[in-house]
Give the backbone structure.
Amino acid sequence: MRVSLKDVAERAGVSIKTVSNVVNNYQHVTPGMRARVQAAIDELGYRPNMTARHLRKGRTGILALAVPELGNPYFAELAGAVIDVAAEHDLTVLLDHTGGDREREMLVSQGFRAGVIDGLILSPLELEVEDLRGREDDVPLVLLGEREYDLPYDHIAIDNVAAARTAVRHLLGRGRNRIAYLGVRTDSANRPAHLRLAGWREELTAAGVPAPDSLIGPTGGWDRGDGAEAMARMLDAGVRPDAVFAYNDLVAIGAMRVLHERGLRVPWDVAVVGFDDIAEGRFGAVSLTTISPDKRAIARLAVESLLRTLENRAEAPAGRELTAEFRLVERESTLGRR
Amino acid sequence: MRVSLKDVAERAGVSIKTVSNVVNNYQHVTPGMRARVQAAIDELGYRPNMTARHLRKGRTGILALAVPELGNPYFAELAGAVIDVAAEHDLTVLLDHTGGDREREMLVSQGFRAGVIDGLILSPLELEVEDLRGREDDVPLVLLGEREYDLPYDHIAIDNVAAARTAVRHLLGRGRNRIAYLGVRTDSANRPAHLRLAGWREELTAAGVPAPDSLIGPTGGWDRGDGAEAMARMLDAGVRPDAVFAYNDLVAIGAMRVLHERGLRVPWDVAVVGFDDIAEGRFGAVSLTTISPDKRAIARLAVESLLRTLENRAEAPAGRELTAEFRLVERESTLGRR
DNA sequence: CTCAGTCTGTACAACGTTGGAAGGAACGGC
DNA sequence: GCCGTTCCTTCCAACGTTGTACAGACTGAG
């Protein structure tokens, strides 16, 4: 049986509350009493029951983080950052992955962990705005990823359009003018995918470079295999880009693999830019130029937004758009051919 | 304010317990009563308070998983598997990463989450056996990774020596006889690293092939950069292996990067075998032959071991060694030169 | 029509903790 | 020696839930 305050109190010959006072460093406890109680605590090996404390305090100190897929290094790295930042605030993280499934994202957002988590950080893929509108749950929520809406939840994003334009501009600056975009799925609610495509189009148009549909590579998802398929399909169709901007690093890596198989050399024949700056991109045979979102900042903004909401429950949450920085990291995949 | 059973009870004009009975699908409730209470529940939007339920039941349905580093795809993929398996048993997973730091591993194993988790799955890197010996915590524990000890905790592993021998045998079968091992750290408690080295040595010795120390590449850690450094150091020392067996895929990938930089072609000049079968290995310019541990099985064994311990608390836990399967996955990095 | 047996709903206590208020001892000042 | 203060400790209630015991109502058999 677990040791409780009661056991310690009996052992020390004091009341339960006095033991509690010692445990919580309450100030008005005489040194003698403190020592006596502490001795009993040590002897019995007492450890506070967090569940009871949570019930009493109405707070658990647990945040949930729901991402589409932990196997995706971007989300794994982001999760690591969230865990670290949460730890700085004495919070722990309960992790969930939704598989990017809309149903499961709805379930998670509806708070099926009600009462056990203090807040939820959700990185949705297919969730629609209206799915959140009728939300009855009182658990504070923060959304990751740029979205357009008028809901009372903070959301953290980087400026996807600007980032995509930066990537495309970089390629244009390298003398490329048949720049493909890989990673569109018309049937997906994933806004960043649309925004990055928009940025690609905007930058090309602004530079007076054609942006034909043939240079847009649709994918079924956003993993390495999807990138490989999309690249292969484009090449099979006789389209020969001299550069590729991919939705994310995984798609870019899949594309590079196919380019390599087809004897097209990166960066000489085709330059490649990814998105996310996952560690994997730094160590391929050809290291990957990429847009690097500040993951640490994203984690920090998310956790602190939740804390803020928890502090002043009374006031209506802001529904702010919090923006994290990004930067272009140049590596081998866009070197050469000045 | 949150809606509680009491509020629903008042609204429906019944006792608290009756509402509880409805919520828990207790059998002896008349349909009429059930409907009336359900209506009140729906009107008020009642959701059970899990914390209170946990306190009452003495169970939280939360498992903790502590791994060294989520940025390491092996652990990220493993974590994903654990989350899935846990979900099948209606359990959720609280994730922690220790950074492979002994202090932090001790802290985690000592159960600083006491009362909030039902069990702990720990994947230690530097934890020593004696660190666990005085464990006072009553939270069920399962250890991941092969270890030698006599403690009352189940541990899940694959047969590292056999796996390493399989990898080396594969290379020998490809006509390689200067096979390096990359990823030793003499100062580390990480047993699998030692076991894999032992397997390398055993297999070479059994085949009558020399296993000189010059072919052993020490590393500071087990990430891509460590593999790259170790490979570079070995080549700089004038050692020219015709194959590399690496502690894990990350080390292998780092090594391949350096081989590529130095103009050594994989697999023609140097064949490479990794360990872990992370997704990343399948999509490099040269896909990576690797030992593939059954991660799903590992996750399943771990979760089910905890459940078993929870069921029969009374009996002493077994301290069993549970073994998961592995297999060699052949890819491009060991093709050719029959 | 009575009695046993079954069914339905209620009252109470308990899980382990903490906040608030009240109790009691020690102490100094008069 | 009495009183007011201060300081420390204890008592009580509450967080929201569920298990146990029990009371009342209804059913069917004798």
